[in-house]
Amino acid sequence: MPDYYIIYEPGLVATLHTRTNGCIIKKPKMKKRHIIFLRHYPYLFALLLVLLVSWTDKKPIFRNGIYRSVVTRPDGKDIVFNFQSKDSAGKKILYVLNADEKLLVDNVAEKDDSVFIQMPFFESGFRAAIDAQGNLQGQWIKRFADREQILPFTAKYNEKQRFVATAKPAFNVSGRWDATFIGKKNDTTKAIGEFSQTGAKITGTFLTSTGDYRYLEGVVSRDSLVLSGFDGGHAFLFTAKIDDANNLSGGNFYSGATSVESWVAKKDEKIELPDGYQQTKLHEGESKLNFYFKSLDGEDVSINDNRFKNKVVVVQILGSWCPNCMDETNFLSDYYNRNKQKGVEIVGLAYERTTDFERSKSSLQRFVKRFNVQYPVLITGVTVSDLQRTEKTLPQLTEIKGFPTSIFIDKKGNVRKVYTGFNGPGTGEHYKEFQKEFDETINGLLNE
């Protein structure tokens, strides 16, 4: 919209600016089509000025409230999640909402009619334009070792529903399910689906031998199930047909930009996963670890340092790209800060996407800051994708099969247990069982 000049007296013009909503008296050079002569109509002049001010475009703002957000894959599948924006301590923050989780995002910046949202982990963020109604349209950008993944992103202001059930549910799928995921090469992965359904709303997760899929939320509409989850690192969409009270078929699992697997499930309240203590072991004849890596400060830290001697030590194998590692770091940091005086030490060994120390350091510092980590986190310098990652870093072990993995060391420096995986807070009762078992393991070693 061009500026319009309203002549009230000869030679004096009120200029209405579309961005500032200001009214400035000056003598401009005018085009005739932009001149409105109101010298003899003072009341009409005042009325039109008010109308023009209200009509003029205002600067779009990132509004407080609930948004329905959509990340669209190249195949047209939408991964849906919600977030809530608000003001806190003089700045904008938001919470990504998945079932019972509220994931804080406190790196939010606005400039002109755009907003920039940096997720706290996973080298992931959004950049979007804000329209007059407060909606967002832009991109979700996620960095990998050698590329950026960029997907279209939209967020509808003041929409609280994630999915809408178009029909009354024909079944209630609450309970424990034996799920099988089938990849493109017909390779299969076992998982346990655990769902809780109230009316049409369903929440839950999938547990695997290396961790869980965190918080999922969706609906059941007649005989169809849909679940989604987003945490900045992973974007998940699950769909399936409910054949009857005990069978799910025709499922599809969409992850990130391109990954898709089919899945089926049978209800089985007694189904169990492989023992997490049997995934990774010590080589025969080995009893102790022997490593040193650089801390985030660039200092060499060794398992043989004095701070670890005569202590019960937990070695945390992690990566800043790993959502389950985020949940485990939250747990371990809180545990350590409450119990370090008992003679417990924790040390994290990070396997990042690249061997670039500074990039790895930047990603890991966000973990350390967010979860108030007081124990050392070390950068191994070996990537998670390196097939020789175990031999290059912890050759005493048979194989690091999953992230996270926890290694329990007694006060004499002997490895006593190695556990692969982590049942996070999204798994409900399993998380409580994990906490209880963790306490019992540490206390047993402390009492020896």
Number of helices: 5
| Rg measurement, Å | 28 Å
Distance between the termini: 79 Å
Tell me the major beta sheet: 9 strands, antiparallel
Count up the domains. 3
How much strand? 35-45%
The CATH architecture of the largest domain can be named as Beta Barrel
Q: Please name the CATH topology of the largest domain.
A: Lipocalin
The parts where pLDDT drops under 50 for at least 5 residues are 1-39
The total strand number stands at 29
Spatial sequence of strands, sheet with the most strands: 8-7-6-5-13-12-11-10-9
What is the CATH homologous superfamily assignment of the largest domain? Quinohemoprotein amine dehydrogenase alpha subunit, domain 2
The overall pLDDT average reads 89
Short description:
The protein has 448 residues and is of the alpha+beta class. Helices cover 15% and strands 42% of the residues. β21 and β22 (259-267) form a beta hairpin.
Could you walk me through the main structural features you see in this protein, from its secondary elements to its overall organization?
With 448 residues, this protein is of the alpha+beta class. It folds into three domains: 52 residues, no CATH class; 215 residues, Beta Barrel (Lipocalin); 171 residues, 3-Layer(aba) Sandwich (Glutaredoxin). It is 15% helix and 42% strand. It is built from five helices and 29 strands. Strands 8-7-6-5-13-12-11-10-9 form a nine-stranded antiparallel sheet, with no helix packed on it. An eight-stranded antiparallel β-barrel has the order 14-15-16-18-19-20-21-22. Strands 24-23-27-26-25-28-29 form a seven-stranded mixed sheet. The chain is globular and about 60 Å long. It starts with a strand and ends with a helix. The relative contact order is 0.10. The N terminus is likely disordered.
